[in-house]
């Protein structure tokens, strides 16, 4: 089982940004430190799981900012008290955590812990003095806080992995042209090899099988690539689908696709088995093909081909995917697309999917029918406020599921991007993690 | 300076050698379980003491045995209908009964008086002949089958024959709660071993050598407890007057278990504690509670554990505002039907502030029966006795300390997770749990700005975040949805007086709800989120419990600042939401636990490889190498100052 860490910053970049602001690594924006400190103490702290080093740094810097501020009412005691509170919490926290990690029945002293973790022992001394004796003088506190910040830099901030940042930066990778050409070359070669094999009727021979295997491996190498991100897979699927490798060029409406399926299946099935992301990416590309053409003409040969490929790809994924629930969620995703983009080919795909799966039928039939309804009668007048009952009480509620879905569907259509309705249920189960607007 | 001695002085009383064994056991149990279940505990202790490693640990009070950590449910008040008379027999002694195995996995067990049978897992229990008791509840042949949840993380309920020739049936069930296994490792391997697909339960002997090393303990009710229980039962039975029972004891002293058994004994078969952390609820219980808290969530639609009213303190501890806590509890109790006995599940904070709150609570709630669970501070006992001279006091000896398989934080997670996944099926009263990951539940899109805004304000209990960061703080966190009494929208935002009675509030509502509530108080962040800035004096006054109630918790799934919508996931049904649509609502945030379980469910569900390729806020994957093996680079010299 992989381990996951929950942290209060949304992305690693956020943490690095804050580090640069705290330690002036960035531009010298005057308020940058203040902003970073507030963000840590007045937001991340509330989110929980804030590493003690981050909290301590913010506390110590907050004390410095307090010292630098031009507040004339600030008393000497207030200054020293703020420094002391920040410093004490910093030291005590490290020692407590250390002791609790030791798990000894007779816990070590704070001094022992400090020695073992390489914290300057006079930190512990100063803490003790501040708590039990006189408040230390301002000069000593200022020095200790500086030193504390340097120590925190060494044990925590300097060790943050910058690689995560590099990942983000590499998102706009410059040149995938070469790789694309490579994909085209392999796909073309595969296609001719298969065609030749069929022509000479040796498609079942071992020699051809090993050729196919070699092609699959070549594709696998491209997809595995050097990076673990999804771009290679996406690029591969884009070339495969958008450049019409899958669609026979001389096809006319209503022709069978079996030839094309037979030609590509050996490669696709292997990729579906070996590349975890491939099924979903392929299906997504096919979705895009179906939905991007604004008018899905029922006479469009290519759309028909993509619709049939979509059904076939789902079937392949279902048969070959080794990864748990992917197949079911792919079907659901496809149905969602069919509902959102009603048209003759999405309707065909949707119906076929519903017929084949009772569970999907239960979940989506009402919505699907509603979407077809909308597509067929664009002039229909609908009360967009159904279901909100913001002035008259919930008189029309509760709806039966179907009615509600229809109502929501209409209001979603009409309101599209405004928040005119107080409460409304999201149309679809989101497929994005918590924290991302679906 | 002598730092060593002084440091010890500064941190906790020196541990008395003679007491070490008891403390040691508890402490060890605590430490060995402190690592979250999805982390691999590191073995080398030396490695643990590395400054960089410590630097990554949050310092949030969980490292000292501070007493401010309140248990998962700050208070539940439980009203149980008038009981039938029961007698509780002797402590079970021995014997395992005669077991026959049926074709469909069912076991038929014949028990003599005081013979016992214990199972781990999930099963239905039916009495065919005679009388049996479990968890304090008495079952007879006319009782309907009862669902028992006996995870190995908790003490196992024991089925006890109450007369010779008692025959009980233990039935395989269609599991409803085990759908949670896939969503969080906290729920894994706690029901039974997987080798017998026929049954959702197995006898506890079989699991004693389980390699998962669950510490299986039976839930035993000792003689003193039985005596107190039957005295309380007699009291409830014989007096016509109001009965309100409060158990007082330290953390993990067995209050909740005692209360559960007590409720079960008072209603003839039955079971309860309810709701997620931070919520105080009044629940009417009509069926026994045969499992740990997360198996019997209360809801307004549940026929067995009906939620009557709830308030939130938006925190796992009442330390920030004990007055509000007492005010909430007091207000709740006024909604309890006086003809039913009321069992109050108190918190385990029994010294300092906790003790004075307990005293206030005992007085404010007119407690008539106090059960003291030893060990208790003698001063507290004395104070309680002076303060409540009318109440009857019962004393229970110290219960053996049971090592728990989950930390308090983990238990709260389980409780909250079960709460969010819980559904009340229309047809049956049996609770069900949704197997979908919380992230794929369809959220409610709730507008917070503009003419149709339903959210009046976002309130912060305790410390308020900086308005610039309110959205960042709310995103992905837990909040309480609080409904305001429409007529009192104005009052509700004004400082609460925490008065226990409603005397002056029923008249003089001259200023009704026509105006926008306290529009002057409410400010907006740059994203348009409405909030109430804290007064110069400090914390924002909490909502007056007389004019508001907590509808449910919600997970802020996302914030769509463009369309001014909060995406909320709640356990409420669509009809419950429909009933809320025209009501003024406030979102209360405070120091609820981070819903880590929610961020990870779909990852757990989809297996080890899935999911991390996309952007996943607040979650990182920890490299298998571990921190020790990672290569660190020093990039810049520190420029502190």
TrEMBL record, chain A:
<dbReference type="GO" id="GO:0090730">
    <property type="term" value="C:Las1 complex"/>
</dbReference>
<dbReference type="GO" id="GO:0004519">
    <property type="term" value="F:endonuclease activity"/>
</dbReference>
<dbReference type="InterPro" id="IPR007174">
    <property type="entry name" value="Las1"/>
</dbReference>
<protein>
    <submittedName>
        <fullName>rRNA-processing protein las1</fullName>
    </submittedName>
</protein>
<dbReference type="GO" id="GO:0000460">
    <property type="term" value="P:maturation of 5.8S rRNA"/>
</dbReference>
<dbReference type="Pfam" id="PF04031">
    <property type="entry name" value="Las1"/>
</dbReference>
<dbReference type="GO" id="GO:0030687">
    <property type="term" value="C:preribosome, large subunit precursor"/>
</dbReference>
<dbReference type="GO" id="GO:0000470">
    <property type="term" value="P:maturation of LSU-rRNA"/>
</dbReference>
UniProtKB/TrEMBL annotation, chain B:
<dbReference type="GO" id="GO:0000448">
    <property type="term" value="P:cleavage in ITS2 between 5.8S rRNA and LSU-rRNA of tricistronic rRNA transcript (SSU-rRNA, 5.8S rRNA, LSU-rRNA)"/>
</dbReference>
<feature type="compositionally biased region" description="Polar residues">
    <location>
        <begin position="496"/>
        <end position="509"/>
    </location>
</feature>
<dbReference type="InterPro" id="IPR045116">
    <property type="entry name" value="Clp1/Grc3"/>
</dbReference>
<dbReference type="GO" id="GO:0005524">
    <property type="term" value="F:ATP binding"/>
</dbReference>
<dbReference type="InterPro" id="IPR032319">
    <property type="entry name" value="CLP1_P"/>
</dbReference>
<dbReference type="GO" id="GO:0005634">
    <property type="term" value="C:nucleus"/>
</dbReference>
<keyword id="KW-0808">Transferase</keyword>
<comment type="similarity">
    <text>Belongs to the Clp1 family. NOL9/GRC3 subfamily.</text>
</comment>
<comment type="function">
    <text>Polynucleotide 5'-kinase involved in rRNA processing.</text>
</comment>
<feature type="domain" description="Clp1 P-loop">
    <location>
        <begin position="249"/>
        <end position="422"/>
    </location>
</feature>
<feature type="compositionally biased region" description="Low complexity">
    <location>
        <begin position="510"/>
        <end position="520"/>
    </location>
</feature>
<keyword id="KW-0067">ATP-binding</keyword>
<dbReference type="GO" id="GO:0051731">
    <property type="term" value="F:polynucleotide 5'-hydroxyl-kinase activity"/>
</dbReference>
<dbReference type="Pfam" id="PF16575">
    <property type="entry name" value="CLP1_P"/>
</dbReference>
<feature type="region of interest" description="Disordered">
    <location>
        <begin position="493"/>
        <end position="543"/>
    </location>
</feature>
<keyword id="KW-0418">Kinase</keyword>
<protein>
    <recommendedName>
        <fullName>Polynucleotide 5'-hydroxyl-kinase GRC3</fullName>
    </recommendedName>
</protein>
<dbReference type="InterPro" id="IPR027417">
    <property type="entry name" value="P-loop_NTPase"/>
</dbReference>
<keyword id="KW-0547">Nucleotide-binding</keyword>
């Amino acid at each position: 089982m992989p381990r996951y860490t929950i942290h209060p910053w949304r992305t690693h970049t956020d943490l690095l940004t804050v580090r640069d602001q705290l330690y002036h690594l960035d531009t010298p924006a005057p308020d940058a430190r203040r902003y970073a400190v507030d963000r840590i103490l007045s937001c991340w702290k509330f989110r929980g799981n804030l590493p003690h080093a981050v909290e301590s740094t913010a506390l110590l810097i907050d004390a410095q900012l307090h010292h630098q501020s031009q507040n004339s009412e600030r008393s000497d005691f207030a200054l020293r008290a703020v420094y002391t509170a920040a410093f004490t919490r910093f030291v005590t926290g490290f020692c407590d955590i250390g002791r609790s990690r030791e798990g000894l029945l007779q816990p070590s002293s704070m001094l022992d812990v400090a020695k073992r973790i390489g914290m300057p022992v006079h930190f512990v001394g100063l803490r003790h003095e501040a708590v039990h004796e006189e408040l230390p003088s301002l000069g000593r506190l200022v020095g200790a806080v500086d030193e504390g910040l340097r120590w925190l830099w060494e044990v925590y901030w300097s060790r943050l992995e910058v690689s995560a940042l590099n990942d983000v930066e590499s998102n706009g990778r410059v040149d995938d042209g070469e790789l694309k050409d490579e994909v085209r070359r392999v796909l073309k070669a595969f296609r001719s090899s298969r065609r030749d094999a069929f022509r000479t009727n040796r498609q079942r021979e071992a020699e051809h099988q090993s050729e196919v295997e070699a092609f699959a491996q070549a594709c696998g190498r491209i997809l595995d690539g050097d990076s673990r991100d999804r771009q290679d897979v996406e690029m591969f699927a884009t070339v495969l689908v958008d450049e019409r490798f899958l669609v026979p060029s001389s096809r006319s409406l209503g022709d069978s696709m079996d030839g094309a399926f037979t030609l590509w299946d050996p490669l696709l099935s292997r990729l579906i088995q070996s590349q975890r992301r491939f099924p979903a990416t392929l299906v997504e590309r096919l979705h895009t093909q179906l939905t991007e053409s604004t008018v899905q003409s029922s006479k469009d040969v290519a759309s028909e081909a993509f619709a049939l490929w979509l059904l076939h790809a789902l079937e392949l994924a279902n048969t070959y995917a080794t990864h748990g629930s992917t197949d079911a969620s792919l079907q659901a995703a496809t149905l969602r697309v069919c509902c959102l983009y009603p048209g003759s080919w999405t309707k065909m795909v949707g119906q076929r999917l519903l017929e084949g799966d009772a569970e999907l039928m239960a979940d989506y039939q009402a919505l699907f029918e509603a979407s077809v309804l909308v597509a067929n009668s664009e002039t229909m007048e609908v009360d967009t406020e159904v279901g909100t009952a913001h002035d008259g009480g919930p008189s029309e509620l509760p709806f039966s599921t179907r009615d509600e879905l229809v109502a929501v569907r209409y209001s979603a259509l009409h309101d599209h991007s405004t928040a005119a309705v107080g409460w409304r249920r999201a149309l679809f189960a989101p497929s994005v993690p918590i924290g991302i607007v679906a | 300076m002598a730092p060593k001695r002084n440091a010890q002085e500064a941190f906790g009383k020196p541990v008395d050698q003679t007491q070490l064994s008891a403390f040691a056991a508890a402490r060890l149990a605590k430490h060995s379980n402190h690592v979250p279940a999805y982390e691999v505990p590191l073995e080398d202790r030396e490695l643990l003491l590395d400054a960089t490693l410590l630097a990554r640990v949050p310092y949030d009070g969980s490292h000292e045995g501070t007493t401010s950590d309140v248990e998962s449910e700050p208070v539940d008040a439980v009203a149980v209908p008038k009981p039938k008379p029961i007698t509780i027999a002797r402590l079970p002694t021995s014997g395992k009964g005669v077991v026959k195995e049926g074709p469909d996995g069912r076991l038929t067990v014949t028990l003599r008086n005081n013979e016992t049978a214990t199972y781990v897992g999930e099963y239905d229990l039916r009495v065919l002949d005679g009388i049996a008791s479990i968890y304090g509840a008495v079952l007879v042949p006319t009782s309907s089958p009862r669902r028992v949840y006996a995870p190995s993380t908790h003490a196992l309920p024991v089925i006890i024959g109450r007369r010779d020739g008692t025959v009980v049936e233990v039935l395989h069930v269609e599991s409803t709660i085990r759908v949670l296994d896939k969503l969080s490792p906290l729920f894994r391997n706690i029901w039974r071993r997987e080798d017998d697909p026929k049954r959702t339960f197995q006898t506890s002997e079989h699991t004693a050598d389980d390699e998962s090393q669950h510490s299986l303990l039976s839930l035993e009710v000792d003689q003193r407890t039985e005596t107190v229980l039957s005295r309380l039962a007699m009291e409830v039975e014989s007096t016509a007057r109001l009965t309100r029972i409060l158990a007082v004891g330290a953390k993990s002293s067995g209050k909740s278990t005692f209360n559960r058994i007590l409720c079960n004994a008072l209603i003839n078969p039955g079971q309860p504690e309810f709701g997620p952390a931070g919520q105080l609820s009044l629940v009417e219980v009509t069926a026994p509670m045969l499992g740990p808290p997360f198996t019997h969530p209360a809801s307004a639609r549940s026929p067995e554990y009906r939620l009557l009213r709830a308030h939130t303190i938006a925190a796992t501890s009442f330390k920030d505002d004990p007055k509000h806590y007492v005010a909430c509890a007091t207000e709740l109790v006024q909604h309890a039907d006086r003809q039913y006995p009321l069992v109050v599940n108190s918190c385990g904070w029994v010294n300092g502030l906790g003790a004075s709150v307990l005293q206030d609570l005992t007085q404010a709630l007119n407690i008539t029966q106090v059960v003291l669970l030893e060990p208790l501070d003698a001063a507290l006992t004395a104070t309680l006795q002076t303060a409540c001279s009318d109440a009857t006091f019962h004393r229970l000896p110290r219960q053996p300390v049971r090592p728990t398989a989950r930390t308090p934080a983990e238990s709260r997670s389980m409780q909250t997770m079960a709460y969010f996944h819980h559904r009340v099926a229309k047809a049956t009263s049996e609770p069900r749990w949704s197997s979908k990951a919380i992230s794929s539940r369809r959220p409610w899109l709730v507008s917070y700005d503009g003419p149709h805004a339903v959210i009046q304000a976002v309130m912060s209990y305790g410390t308020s975040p900086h308005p610039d960061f309110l959205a960042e703080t709310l995103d992905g966190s837990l909040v309480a949805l609080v409904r305001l009494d429409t007529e009192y929208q104005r009052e509700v935002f004004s400082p609460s007086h925490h008065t226990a009675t409603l005397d002056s509030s029923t008249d003089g509502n001259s200023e009704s709800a026509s105006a926008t509530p306290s529009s002057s108080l409410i400010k907006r962040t740059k994203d348009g989120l409405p909030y109430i800035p804290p007064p110069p004096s400090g914390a924002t006054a909490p909502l007056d419990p007389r004019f508001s109630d907590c509808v449910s918790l919600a997970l802020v799934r996302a914030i769509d600042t463009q369309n001014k919508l909060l995406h909320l996931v709640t356990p409420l049904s669509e009809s419950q939401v429909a009933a809320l649509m025209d009501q003024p609502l406030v979102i209360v945030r405070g120091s609820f636990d981070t819903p880590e379980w929610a961020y990870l469910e779909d990852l757990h569900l989809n297996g080890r490889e899935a999911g991390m390729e996309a952007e996943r806020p607040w979650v990182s994957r920890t490299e298998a190498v571990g921190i020790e093996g990672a290569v660190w680079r020093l990039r810049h010299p520190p420029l502190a100052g």
